[in-house]
Amino acid sequence: MTKRNLIASLFLIGFALLAGCRAAPGPEAPESPSPAPVETPAPATPSPTPEPDPVEEALSTMTTEEKVGQLLIAGFYGTQAGEEVRSYIQDLHVGGVILYGRNMESAGQLLELTNGLKALAGDGIPLLISTDQEGGLVERMPPEVHRLPNAYHFGQIDDPEARMNACFTLGQTLAAQCATFGINMDFAPVMDIWSNPDNTVIGERAFGSDAATVTGAANETALGILSGGVIPVAKHFPGHGDTETDSHLGLPVVDKTKEELLDFELRPFRQAIDTTCVFGTYGGDTSIPAIMVGHILVSQIDPERPASLSPAVVTGLLREELGFDGVVVTDDLTMGAVTQSYGLGEAAVLAVEAGCDLLLVCHEEGSVEEAYTALLEAVDSGRLSQDRLDQSVRRILTLKQDYGVTSDPVEAPDLEALNALVDAAW
């Protein structure tokens, strides 16, 4: 399957070359030898003026309040771009929003909502408009859109080539569903390996129960999403498949050594980071653009903090050892795995200290404001340095720039064509 480059280079640098000139020799004197010609050195070629970096230019003009807001992906209630979400976008300057079923009544309403969100962003930094559209157990589409089966359905196709083709098509279909309604980031695919049969929170959301199947199928799906113009977010690092506790309710524990994780749970993520060079044909990088870290206690790496709040996991394992330099996203900080042990504000600060960039704050009224206030106070007090804040904001702005995130409205969808695409995917 040919993987084509879908994004052109953002900048072109022109060079002006000045030609040197040579002095002409004087007329020949008949009675004396001609002097040796004297060459005038060519003038030095001036260095080209560097083109401005739009990310650095934007960063240099932002206030601390605007930078802090960019770290947050906000959940909200209601089906219209009303006062709650207006405040998030225009007062708190959030980097994005996440949509759930509670925000979707119909295809027309969803389109009106996403266009309304973009209008609220206006000429400012565009929003990441995100959702969890996996298909199957986790569907985030209005009722008029046909349903897809679970990832497991695609991962269990016997013929390897047919499986990879089907997973790529699945990714393209998920992207089409999202893009049709103006959604530019999808928290998919699941890269967890369903190795524990008692695991109910992952189950058939996974592509399979062995590392080889999940590695190939999940990465091909991610490529399909990416090729459809939507940002995929691989989840749930470092692996939620060998757990029994639902992290929405409590803190799951994975009691494995780093070596065991590298040999099994981390294999799909390692391929997405290191060897899925096809990603580079789209975004100019060799790595998947974003990874979600789960609320999982990896007891032999950090016995105290869940992965999403752990410097040992996020900075030590994901960034330094595996070499990931993209955007790190937390799972929802209002989940029970976090709230049972931490206040929301403290959890938000700990997540940034651990090395995360985007923080999901999805439920409970007042949660977004609480996280924002705690982060702002941490920066003002010096607990979070401006340099650390800038690192995350730079990654977020670069992600938006590289993947063409804009505030342009989306036109009314052709639902018949979209549903035909969905039906053909399986």
TrEMBL record:
Residues 1-23 form the signal peptide. Residues 27-52 have a biased composition (Pro residues). One of its GO terms (biological process) is carbohydrate metabolic process. It holds the Pfam family Glyco_hydro_3. Its EC number is 3.2.1.52. GO terms for molecular function: beta-N-acetylhexosaminidase activity. SUPFAM superfamilies: (Trans)glycosidases. The keyword Kinase does not apply. Residues 63-399 form the Glycoside hydrolase family 3 N-terminal domain. It comes from the Bacteria. It is an enzyme of class 3 (hydrolase). Keywords: Glycosidase, Hydrolase, Signal. Residues 25-57 are annotated as: Disordered. Belongs to the glycosyl hydrolase 3 family. This is Beta-N-acetylhexosaminidase. It comes from Candidatus Intestinimonas pullistercoris.
